[in-house]
Every structure is written in C-alpha cells, then in structure tokens.
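Appendix B. Extra example for self-study. Work through it before the problem class; the solution is given directly after the inputs so you can check yourself.
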Amino acid sequence: MADEEDIILSELDDEELVLQMHDDLYDGLKDEIEEGVRILLDRGWTPYDVLTKALVAGMTIVGADFRDGILFVPEVLLAANAMKAGMAILKPLLAETGAPKVGKMVIGTVKGDIHDIGKNLVGMMMEGAGFEVVDIGINNPVENYIAALEREQADILGMSALLTTTMPYMKVVIDTMKEKGMREDYIVLVGGAPLNEEFGKAIGADAYCRDAAVAVQTAKDYMSRKHNKLAAG
Amino acid sequence: MRPLLKGYAMSTSLSRLLETRDWILADGATGTNLFNMGLTAGEAPELWNTDRPDNIRALYRGAVEAGSDLFLTNTFGGNASRLKLHDAQGRVRELNRVGASLGREIADAAGRPVVVAGSMGPTGEIMVPMGALTHELAVEMFHEQAEGLKEGGVDVLWVETISSPEEFAAAAEACAKAGMPWCGTMSFDTAGRTMMGVTSAAMVALVDQLANPPLAFGANCGVGAADLMRTLLGFVAAGPERPIIAKGNAGIPKYHDGHIHYDGTPELMAEYAVLARDAGATIIGGCCGTMPEHLASMRRALEERPRGARPTLDEIAEKLGGFSSTSDGTGADEGAGRERRGRRRG
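Solution. Structure tokens for the complete assembly:
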C-alpha cells in the first residue's frame, strides 16, 4: 500500500467500519478491534450484531484463508487474540440481552497427550465463530470429559491428540459415553495431526476435522442439523 | 594416523562419517516401537529411560541391528516444559543423561561406527509474540536438556519436529551454549509447510543465517513419505550448503483393533530411501511407523540399488502415492493472498 495514512475508526460509517474491522482482525490488531466494538455499541448496535457482523464475519475470512493455506498458525493466533479482546467487551452484554447461543463445546487433549497447540487453536477459532468453549486442558482421563459434558450441558465434545500413542484413547472416551447411554446427546469431533477421516469413523466419532477451520465449519453444520431435528420434534 | 580430537576419542563423529560416506542410514520410530513394547497412552516415554532401561536398550538395538548408522535417543519430550506435564520437570538432566548413556552403551557395542544423536523435540509452547514463551526461556530449557544429553555421551544433538523458526533458533543457541555439534529438522505437515507456515525454501534461508548453523538439516515426520520427498526437492532447489536429512513417516496411520498401524510397507520405505538419496539427501531414515524391518529393507535398497537421476514430483507420486496438498508454498503462486483493503497502522 503506497499511502499508509491513518484511518480514524470513529469517522467511518457503519458499513466502512465493519469492513475495516474485518481487515483489522485479519491483521490481528487488538486495540483497533476493541475500539471498533465500542464505537458500534455506542452507535446503538446490539451486542449480538457486533459479534456476528463484525467479529464472526471477520474471523470467517481468517478461517477460510487458513483452510486454503494462505494464512498460517501465527497469523491466526494473532487474529484470535484480537477477536478475544472484542469478545471480552461483548460477553457480559450478550448474557444480559439474552442473545441467541451458537453452541457450547467442551474441548481437551486426551489422556497422555500434552500437545495443546492444536486444541488451543480450535478453541480460539470456535470462540471466533461465536461458540462458547469450555477448555478442560490437557491429559484428560475419560472421567474429566464426562463430568465436563454433564456439568456444562454442552452440545459438542472436541478431543485432540497429536501422538499415535494417544489417539486410541479417544475410542475409550467414546465407548464410555456409549456405555453410559449419553453418546447420542453430543456431537463428537476429533482432530490432531496423525488422525484421518477413516480413524474418526473407526472409533465412532461424528467427524474428523483436519484443521481448526474445518472444525468450526463441521460444528456449525452439526449444530444446524441438531436444531432442525429438535424443530422436527 | 591422525590424532583424535579430545573428547571424541570414544565416540563416532558425525562430521567424520559425513566426510567418508555417500549416505547415512538413520533410525525409525521411537513412539511406535515403544508402543509395541507396551507403552500406554498417558506415560511419558522418557520415564522408561530409568524405569524400563532394557526396553530402551531393545529400542536402540533394534535400529542398530537393522543397519542404522545413527540413532536418536529416547529424549524427544525431555525438556522441562513437556516433562512438567508428568510432574517430572525436576528430572530433565537425569532422564536425558540416562537416555543418552544407554545409547552410548549400545553404540559402543555395535562393532562398527554408530552415531548417538540426542533427540530434542519441541517445547510445545507458543513463542512470543503469539504465545507466552520467551526466547531466553526457550534457550534455557533446551540448554538444560542439551547438557544432560552431553553428560550421557551423545555424539551430536538432534533437534527435531520443530515448526516455529523462533524455536529452531532458540535450540541452535542452546546447542552452542552446550558446546555440541547439532542437526535440526522441522516437520512440514500443513499444506507442505510447517504448522507455523515455514516453507522448505524458508528453512534453508533460516539455517544459513543462524550464528550456530547445524551440521545437517532437513525434515522429519509430517504427513507421509511422498510429502517429505516434495519438501526435500524444495530444499535442494534452494541450493543449501549443508547435508540434508530426510526422516519421513512410514505412510499414514490406520486404526486396527485398538492400536495404530502405519500403512507404509518395508518395500515402500525402501523405495522412499532410494528416492531420497537420489534427490540429494545424505542422512536418510524414517519417523513414525518405521520399524526395524523397514530399516533393514531401506539399508538393503541403499546398498544394492545404483544412484539414479533426481526424481520428479510425478515419479515420487507414482512410487510413493500422492501429496496431501496441491502446492507446498514454494512455487510461483507463493504470496497470492486475498485482495486487501488498505492496511492501517494503529
């Protein structure tokens, strides 16, 4: 860009500002995102509209470029950090206004697996897409997953493993859910570098997600199916 | 006879081996082998160095007996950050020293020159500015591990499966602090790049600008043998000054009856070893799923099959299977981004 002239966010009209916020998210500019969120709220936007039209829409572009190999983890982490800063302002307001919820996910790496970069990335991207994410951390035995799912009344279980030695534990979790008769109450998504679709099917997960962007899209698809099913009665 | 350098009298110097040999066969998998010996999900493999040393001896011996000229120690996750998750962060020095000394023992009994390479895997933390790990702390953690490996008698340090350039640089600095030669490989598992977006060409540039460059550099793990070969061609195209390491996985993991099996056969890995040599790699080995029978088959192929022309991508795909992505980020399409609005400075 030839001229790096400063843009004054408050001087942009709503449409321009939202587009600028998409770019600022893309560039991981945290302070600018916080400022943009405040300006929109001051102009009378509902917290839900700020979330979906400015933040989630912006993160969708980031997710698509990550999926297409244009952006990589460092850029996505910076974008997610900026998104999170905006979310911190919106979260209490969303709760007050009773805005619709996208869905809730419990996520953690399986017992023995301490590699949490992928899990963190999925968590951030899911939050970026408007999901509520309960991160139960690393090295989780099956009891942790079950307890968190029940306590949080979650919709989705996300399990991550980076090691071939820890992948099989995902099946232990799913089998335990079946034994307890609760498997069908949740959408189970699995991910991690050594996994593939065939593995996901073999252990009884709903889907294997190749990367964080795919996880978000898959979660959205399954949530809309779930809603349809509920509506159909 | 040339006097041996002090401190190297008992050990095999990798640099000397590199001078005298056309190719060097490295080892295969650590995790897959230990898993087959009963390592369960939840255990840190490094704890076996002290708890089950005979299994670790068997692991090393498996590679040596299959013909490896170099093997890695069972210390991949032996840094404070990883061991902390098993509440063993106070045992970094010990676990690395023991893992290395078991290796020394097996190598010295081999009856031929075998290099013991001290494995150092990633911290698993994200470095600043994206994450919280500072350069200083990363150097400190790698250095602590390096000192343990040095005490245990490794010939060379072996930094592997790294995805971030910052972490690679921190490890290089730690190796310098320990006064040890080192080799370094990154894992190219995301559309031909590392998770952090490093291309094969970018790694060559990164290695060349380090104050303490490695003896050899390359790629390990990643997706399958075909992808690793494409990365290798990327290195060669960038005209590196150092020997190249290729340590690819034995195919893709499949799930059978409660355990993981890699679908790469010994024949496929033999094909991969020859292709890697013909493409320009000097140190050739396997990674996940590569068992002693794969290594023996690779050794035989490297010894028996004559050197051929550098393979093309089409030949690689034909012999090893297709690639996981259409591009690896090094071609003409590099930098083709989204059409952007004006970038703003805050």
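Self-check: DSSP finds 13 helices and ten strands in chain B. If your reasoning did not lead you there, revisit section 3.
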